[in-house]
Amino acid sequence: MRADDVENAVTMMVGALGAVPDDGWSAPAGPLDWSCRDTVVHVADDLFGYAAQVAIAPPDDYPPFEIVVPDTVGTAGLLQVVATGGAMLAAAVRTAPGGVRGWHPYGDADAAGFAAMGVTEVLVHTHDITRTTDPAWTLPAAPCRGVLARLWPDVDAGDDPAGALLHHTGRASWRGVPAPARWRWHGTPR
């Protein structure tokens, strides 16, 4: 995956969540125990964290920081933090030297792997939040297919890449198989 995939996914998330009222973030995000607010801040934190992994390629952990958004920040501010994290990850991916590897517990990844991880976080957590805020919203097929190809390369999604991604991230049954209770992607490039 590439930097523009990250930018497109973040643009999709901002569009899907832009109408959430400032006081509409406290409910649980779909099936998660986290609130919609905690979930969107988690996405931002992941985007910044993945950018750091690409930019400085630490060998054994994440840099010791966490994104904190004041409780008084509403929809526009929350989505601005996500957009900023997405821009940071896209810039890091775009400028990464060839062969860069950053640490991740699911396998040391290259820039394309961290881009795919960021897009996955954006996609599945937008899905989680919209289960509460806009249940008619659906995952777009193309980015789902892209992250599956990079992070779950043995999955044949056929004509249902969104269903496959939701299944492989523990959110839905797929092709008659219940959602896994535990799941992981494969960050290390093949």
UniProtKB/TrEMBL annotation:
SUPFAM superfamilies given in the database record: DinB/YfiT-like putative metalloenzymes
Domain Mycothiol-dependent maleylpyruvate isomerase metal-binding residue range list: 13-129
Highest taxon in the source lineage: Bacteria
Gene3D superfamilies from the UniProt entry: dinb family like domain
Entries under Pfam families matching the protein: MDMPI_N
GO molecular function: metal ion binding
Protein name (database record): Mycothiol-dependent maleylpyruvate isomerase metal-binding domain-containing protein
